[in-house]
Amino acid sequence: MTEQAVEVGEKLGVANARPECADLPGRSGVLSRPIDGIRRPAVCPDDARTELERYKASLRKYSPVNKGRDGLPWKCRSHCIQCDEVVASQFVYDQTEDAMYLEFECPNCGTRRERHADALFVQSRPRAHPCQPERTYGGSVIHPVVNKLPRTVETLCPECSCIILGRYYVKDNVVLIEKTCPEHGYFRDKINTDAELYLRHARGVFQDERGVYEPQVKGGEACPSDCGLCNQHISTSCLAQIDLTNRCNLTCPVCFASANQAGYVAEPSFEMVVEMLRALRNQQPHPATAIQFTGGEPTVHPEFHRIIRKTTEMGFSHIQIATNGIALANMEFAERAAEAGLHTLYLQFDGLDDALYRRMRAEPLLEKKLACIENCHKLDVKICLVPTIVKRLNDDQVGKILRFALQNAEVISGIAYQPVSFTGRISHRQRAEQRYTLGDLAHDIAEASGADVHRDFFPLSVVAPLPRIMQLLDGKPKIRPSCHSDCAFGTYFFVTPEHEAIPIPALFDLERLFGRFNELAHRIGAKRKLANRWDRLRIFGEFMKSYRWRNYDPRVGPMTFIRAIQGMTNKRYGRGDNEKKCYKTLMAAGMHFMDRYNYDMERIRRCVIQYSTPDGIYPFCTINGGPTYRPFIEAMHGRSEEKWEAEHPDVPMRPSSHPNAMMPWAGRFGIQEDESEPWMGDGVTYEKLRRILEDDQGNGSDGRGCST
């Protein structure tokens, strides 16, 4: 390995960055080129030779599920909901019933046992969808999602990340997780604050996918210690991720990537990025078509525009960046990005109050956000707003952000609310106060929009039949959003010209529609690869039957929905002049990334947000949460700050947060000498913001996302 990597390793305490690992090609934790050629066996504890391999092997210290019934009984502590005390308990397997039980030894309520739904130890498989596959393409058994509570869960210790056993259960209509590490003790957290809603949608999921034909890692048995991507993984990439840098022009207190705080710089070269992109395009049977560049702040990479242009040439049909929007507030930077092929911004947007930005991002940013939105509107670049929501800090902004998005639906196509993930040590009391769940989000969106929580909200995976049908219609492989029902949750709105929000499920019975689509896709696909004329008529007929004719709205008929779907799935219909023929739609959903407190291995196996890294393809919540492999992987190609600064004398470690700071074509790589240089937009978005804030003070809001 390089001298620079040695220094990074010493800063991190990561031994795999040392020269003795140079003779270990193909090992996890050692940079191997080309990146898209990575193929290796799963880590063996007796042969773990790099620091990353040793760390992965250490996660299996307990690993009760991998030991089978030899891992039982699992001694733990559990919440006795009869007396509200945490008491001694143990998980046991009852062979005569082929069932898992939790036995309580409660000093107040006595000895009792409670049966738990289980797919980890029992022989009889839980009831699954009729089309559920048995194994992945890599040969691993697929455990169907368990949709009853209480249930067992394979999870992690929040302190040491070791794989342990826990459970999901319900108390006072709240879904909770609890677990006990033999070394670090008992932990409990909230999963969802609406158990009825949670269970309804867990029971409505469709069949799983089967992963990829050629996983990069073979022989994997202990998720998540065999990343990436291994034979156990069930889903392919829906929105792939590549980190362009760990540098940023902000230093946010809330940042899962710890940008500007690592003590080193991890910034892959252009050639490395191309290899990581190629690894995604090589995925089969569903090559990645959607990519998001992230970081750090991706726009500070010196070759940002060149990377976007190359990504377009490689056939990615959707290119977006996770950004704070500062560079895009500069119109020239935004123009060059749009010309290179940038389609969408995943824009950090925590609210409509600069006091929030000072607290969450360390400086006022609202004007820069609004200028960025203004520029994107002019350039036909779409925006998905991304608020990180912390209970009691900015959960009051959920409705305001929704109303702002409706007022700017010409450019804002979605909101991806992200309930905060706790990536460091935190007290139980603070977690309980700040934990915000997808159940909280559904109720807050419903209150702000007039939507019905139980009719209008669905997990992302419910739309999986749509790409299956679309692939039969045009013969082209489609990405499949086959994630776990706990991962993403929300709804879609039609947005009228008057900026009123109409929930799509209010007019279409989506449960029926997608259920019938799934049946048709399975039936047609078993006979032929492309739908014939009669198949197409049946598909159209099911679509028409699923319209709620009793709720008929003359503004939004079935054909309106068809055009909206075309606009969402095909930029030929959804952008430019053709966009005027489509009704505006707005996604309002939550993506709840996991931390060690609420970790569930079944969610990881189904992850569709996959990172292409120098060490292979990893699920999102293994890079930024759970085992948190990010620092190990960054050490593989990182440089110490001193080395990096010596190699880049004209580029500051932390670029200025002035919108004109990043202008590589003008020789600027983050240095801004004249902070008074103009950059602000024309002000249309500002005027809409002013009206929304006035409405929230009681001057005309109708409470349904429509300003009067």
The percent of residues in helical segments reads 25-40%
Number of helices: 23
Task: Tell how many strands the DSSP assignment holds.
Answer: 27
Rg over CA atoms, rounded to whole Å, is: 25 Å
Spans with pLDDT under 50 lasting ≥5 residues?
1-9, 11-20, 699-708
**Rounded mean pLDDT score:** 88
- What would you call the structural class? alpha/beta
Largest sheet: 11 strands, mixed
Strand content: 15-25%
Shape: globular
| Distance linking N and C termini | 64 Å
Notes on the structure:
This protein has 708 residues and is of the alpha/beta class. It has a domain at 68-209. The strands form 7 sheets. Strands 11, 13, 14, 15, 16, 17, 18, 19, 20, 21 and 22 form an 11-stranded mixed sheet that branches. A hairpin with a 3-residue loop joins strand 8 and strand 9 (185-192). Helix 15 (510-525) packs antiparallel against helix 16 (533-545).
